[in-house]
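User: Hello! My lab partner asked me to get a predicted holo structure for this protein. The small molecule is NAP, SMILES included with the sequence. Please write out the structure tokens.
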Amino acid sequence: MTNQPANTAAWISRKHGKLEVAAAPSTKPGPDQSVVRNQAVAINPLDWIIQVEGNLTYGWLKYPTVLGADVAGEVVEVGSAVTRFKTGDRVLAMAVGTDKDTNTGAEGAFQRYTVVLERLASPIPESMSYEDAAVLPLAVSTAAAGLFEKHRLGLRLPSASARPTGRTVLVWGGSTSVGSNAIQLAVAAGYEVITTASPRNFGYVTSLGASLVFDYNSRTVIADISTALQGRTLAGAISFGTTGAPACVKILANAVGKKFVAIATPPVSFETLGEDSKSRFERARVTRRLIASNIALQVAARPHGVGLGYIFGSSIKNTEVSRALFQDFLPAALSEGRYVATPKPTVVGRSLDDIQSAMDRQRHGVSAAKLVVSLSD
Ligand SMILES: NC(=O)c1ccc[n+]([C@@H]2O[C@H](COP(=O)([O-])OP(=O)(O)OC[C@H]3O[C@@H](n4cnc5c(N)ncnc54)[C@H](OP(=O)(O)O)[C@@H]3O)[C@@H](O)[C@H]2O)c1
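Assistant: Hello! Below are the structure tokens for the protein in complex with NAP.
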């Protein structure tokens, strides 16, 4: 028996299509899944990137489908093997409906009811609003994938009592949503963090635990960070923003310690893909630039022994990092105030109809902010 009344979703019905709100099926959870009645969803660059790029990197998507990765809401039904949650629990969860191995609208965030994996969900502390909680799932998962997965930086896991490791992590783009989580997670694992941000966000990133911050737009930023790293032992770099990966390669070339850059943002911007993205020429141009910039990165990195690896935020669902994050670390860290849900939500809508405009607004850029659509009852 399902406890779900009728579902409604903000559908994307075809490549490049705008979201349209319409009825959606109610889906029963699999054994290791729960159904969540969403009370808030957050917007990520990935949502509009999929919409504007069509099939550049998500060519497997079956349309119509439901986008969105961040949900916060109430559990209304649990699968037969679920042990950590029961009906009525307040949870935050990463929705993975656009993953290649999932590829189903039922697991997208932008609807009233989303099917989520137990291992990608955490309880929300009583004192935390759904809007605050919704900022976390994809951002914290992506940061954790880059920092803790063995084939990325492979850092020690975060805990309540991490001893200082004496090593430093470079977080390029600390004021991004994912970067804000990378700073907190690395500090909680016992690493010193050096980061970059615009000067207006220096106070913000240091409040999260970064010990040094540099302006990524400064002409001397690479030299300045390289100087700061003298006498320090690096544990690796994690990079957000299109200029991050090439800059990190140059910095790591002369650093001491682990020379590996975990990359979340390719060195090519998808923001240039406008309506023209429907044209084969525009997509071909971006594809060529993607290939060329990745070759250039490899050519710059290899002679200096710098390793490179792209992050895929939801890859943690298949590694031990999901349990370490969503089960062992986040619940206590959030409820004890050792970890903050940040950047703070900017609530830009109150219904599924508002999600398209929220995605458009995210595409125009945010600064140390997360756009959230509240769906509260
Ligand atoms: N691979 C994955 O699985 C995955 C998952 C999630 C996100 N991502 C990617 O990771 C990046 C961050 O995502 P997000 O949601 O955290 O972004 P976001 O919060 O929307 O990013 C906004 C921030 O980007 C900063 N920024 C802009 N250009 C930058 C640059 N060149 N270097 C450093 N910082 C820069 C700005 O900092 P200031 O305001 O301080 O100037 C601003 O605060 C995006 O490129 C996103 O597509 C990848």
